[in-house]
Amino acid sequence: MKKTFRIGGVHPHDNKISAEAAIEIFPAIETAYVSMAQHLGAPATPVVAVGDHVKVGQVIAEPAGFISGFVHSPVSGTVKSIGPRADIAGNLVPHVEITVEGDEWMEDIDRSDTVVKDIPFTPEEIIEKVKKAGVVGLGGASFPTHVKLAPPKDKKAECVILNGTECEPYLTSDDRIMRERPREILIGGAIMMKALGVTRGYVGIEENKPAAIASMTEAAREFPQIEVVVLKKRYPQGGEKQLIDAVIRRQVPSGALPIDTGAVVQNVGTSLAVYEAVQKNKPLIDNVITVTGGCLPVQHNYKVRIGTPMSKILEVAGGVPEKAAKVISGGPMMGRAIANLDAATVKANGAILVLTEAETRRKPESNCIRCAKCASACPMGLEPWLLNKLSRAGGRFDELEKERVFDCIECGCCSFTCPAQIPLVDMIRISKAEVMKIMRSRPKK
Question: How far is 288 from 272, CA to CA, in rounded Å?
Answer without folding.
Answer: 11
